[in-house]
Known about the structure:
The chain is an alpha/beta fold. It has two domains: 184 residues, no CATH class; 192 residues, Rossmann fold. Helix content is 45%, strand content 12%. The strands form two sheets. The chain has a six-stranded parallel sheet, sandwiched between helices. The chain has a four-stranded parallel sheet with strand order 1-2-3-4, sandwiched between helices. Helix 5 packs parallel to helix 7. The chain starts with a helix and ends with a helix. About 3% of the residues have low confidence.
Amino acid sequence: MANALMASIPAQLKYVVFAPSDNSTETMHRFSSLNVPARHVMEFFQRGLAEALFTKVYTGWLKRHTGKLATQFIQLIQSQKGKPAKIIVVATHFGLAYQLGAIKAQLERTLGVPILLVVQITDDSPQSVWYVDSADLIISPSHKTKSALQEFARANNLNQVPLEVVPYPVDPAFAQALTSAQIAARVDQYTPGGQSPINIVIPVSGAAVGMQFFVHLMRHLHAASPRFVFYIVCRKAPFTETFLQLVQHEDYVRVFVSAEYKEVVEAYKQVYLAHVIAAEVTKPSEQAFKALLHAGSVGGSVLLLADPVGRQEYDNIALLDRHKLLSDDCARRRGYILPYGSKASADLILDLFTSGKLLRAFSTFTAPTPTDELGANGVLAFWQVLGKKLACC
């Protein structure tokens, strides 16, 4: 999401990335994904009274433990050319947002400029931890999440922070319309008995879960049809090493790997720009919001959503479901939820391609009318909201 927002930042705004090193969230997600009891514990603390207790304790801890954050932030700003008239901090993680909010007044005094803290919710999940009471603006992907967070704030007598709803910001590169030749290429991939390879992207999450699932899924599909070709995009890390060794020498697998997060994000984008992608096997997290794109766009591949982990992934599926983006009863379907197990998932995917279902869906696709929850214009809407609400651009 951060890359999507930066891709369309207004020309008159100078920006710099502030990303203190913190792998705790990724580590926690990986552990809970691989460990079923830990997953249940995590999901227990994402609802009801347990969530309320967790939010109070955790956010209080964040506000009291800012470490060297003030020094790092001040040094970053002072290292830039010229003194800014105003600083707008766009936080895509609640942890950093709480910490910066706790020291915002101190930062303003030291730097001598006003600071505006904007929080962009990165899943359509109304978890109370996303209500950063020290923010100047919170942006939500849906009215459901907005309403739930406002109710939480009222019930707990928190500072009333303005909340706005805009479609989830997707990188504009993915929203580009396919050319007629590219459309023909995607059609051929969806055509039973077509001649071209069927290109499927598999982004490996930062938590690097589901490795064996991916290995077996690719083997099942390629054994059923040599047309299936897979593009793996992942981080180089100790817990992905075995997986990469298993797949990188297969002639039906293309591997794009880097130890740097930014390079992985860029590689993922370049795969889509360089190849016409038919489908993507992904977690129902950030990449699932490409369901908001038109099927005839660069990023309009069919989304094949794997087993959700954590409340936020179930909530993301619920958003897509509410808008019938996962439904057979309309012409706007953009994805499917995979069944449990690699063999069952491979069977479903194979059926989608060989039965002509994907061809018919693509040929009859009708994009839903854009709203403040739907559409490919989330990035533009984000900056328009900031310009209106904060008079910053």
